[in-house]
């Protein structure tokens, strides 16, 4: 896909990504596993693995102007999802993982297959790298919800972190957890146990549910 996309640098592009979302913009850069598009306002960093199909609309369909400034994240080597996340660490960003709304905050740590994200709304979150759909860095003078920056201190979370998302989940056995931002009531409850990539969750009414680890996108606590 990279070789194909390199032929369309600077042109209008329309992407359908996982979840049925449509992203439209100017193709700015192509990396080993990520593309950058400019939608007229923001630079969107999109992992290629979540791109379902690509269309190159005619100029008459688009009114997006070429960006005046380059993306705010500097890069000297070939772009990749992990390098972008590392560069964005500590910056206010918008990310989209699941549900119908993005999450706003900043990345604090990057592990093997997940990263830690601090949100003013959801607080400390653990997010699977496999399910990150896009990332948009804020401008330097912006902060989530226009909160004063002193209310959003850029400091690492004081939590012991496992190298993998699966082991991090195992550390929460016996605790109340919220998976996938709580978009479904069946993803909120006490984590009873994990075995063979299956989570056992006890709901508020005491019902036991079993969830596939591969479909867990985010985890945070009450």
Q: How would you sum up this structure, described in words?
A:
The N and C termini lie far apart (41 Å). The mean pLDDT is 90. The chain is mainly β. The chain has helices spanning 2-6, 81-88, 165-170; strands at 12-17, 21-30, 34-38, 43-47, 51-55, 92-96, 103-110, 114-119, 123-128, 134-137, 176-179, 188-195, 198-202, 208-212, 218-221. Among the domains are: 2-61, Roll (SH3 type barrels), CATH 2.30.30; 165-221, SH3 type barrels, CATH 2.30.30. Strands 10-6-7-8-9-15-11-12-13-14 form a 10-stranded antiparallel beta sheet. Strands 4-3-2-1-5 form a 5-stranded antiparallel beta sheet. It contains 3 helices and 15 strands. It comes from Bacillus seohaeanensis. This is DUF2642 domain-containing protein.
List its traits.
SH3 type barrels, mainly beta, 39% strand, 222 residues, 9% helix, DUF2642 domain-containing protein
Label the structural class. Answer: mainly beta
Calculate the mean pLDDT score and round it.
90
Radius of gyration: 19 Å
Low-confidence stretches: none
DSSP strand content = 35-45%
Q: What overall geometry do the principal axes of the alpha carbons give?
A: globular
Give, in spatial order, the strands making up the sheet with the most strands.
10-6-7-8-9-15-11-12-13-14
* Number of strand segments: 15
* CATH level-two architecture of the domain at 2-61: Roll
Distance between the termini: 41 Å
Order of helices and strands: HEEEEEHEEEEEHEEEEE
According to CATH, the fold-level topology of the domain at 2-61 is SH3 type barrels
Query: Count of helices?
Result: 3
Into which percent range does the helicity of residues fall? under 10%
Oligomer: single chain
CATH class of the domain at 2-61: Mainly Beta
């Amino acid at each position: 896909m990279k070789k194909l996309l390199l032929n369309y640098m600077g042109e209008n592009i329309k992407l359908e990504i996982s979840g049925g979302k449509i992203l439209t913009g100017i193709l700015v850069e192509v990396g080993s596993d990520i593309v950058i598009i400019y939608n007229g306002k923001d630079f969107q960093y999109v992992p290629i693995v979540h791109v379902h199909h690509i269309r190159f609309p005619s100029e008459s369909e688009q009114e997006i102007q070429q960006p005046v400034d380059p993306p705010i994240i500097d890069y000297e080597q070939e772009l990749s999802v992990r390098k972008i996340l590392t560069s964005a660490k500590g910056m206010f960003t918008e990310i989209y993982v699941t549900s119908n709304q993005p999450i706003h905050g900043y990345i604090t740590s990057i592990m093997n297959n997940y990263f830690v994200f601090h949100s003013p709304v959801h607080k400390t979150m653990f997010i699977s790298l496999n399910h990150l759909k896009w990332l948009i860095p804020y401008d330097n003078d912006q902060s989530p919800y226009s909160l004063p920056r002193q209310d959003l201190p850029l400091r690492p979370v004081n939590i012991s972190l496992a190298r993998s998302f699966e082991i991090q989940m195992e550390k929460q056995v016996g605790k109340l957890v919220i998976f996938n931002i709580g978009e479904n009531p069946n993803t909120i409850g006490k984590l009873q146990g994990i075995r063979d990539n299956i989570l056992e969750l006890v709901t508020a009414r005491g019902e036991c549910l079993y969830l596939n680890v591969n479909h867990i996108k985010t985890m945070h606590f009450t």
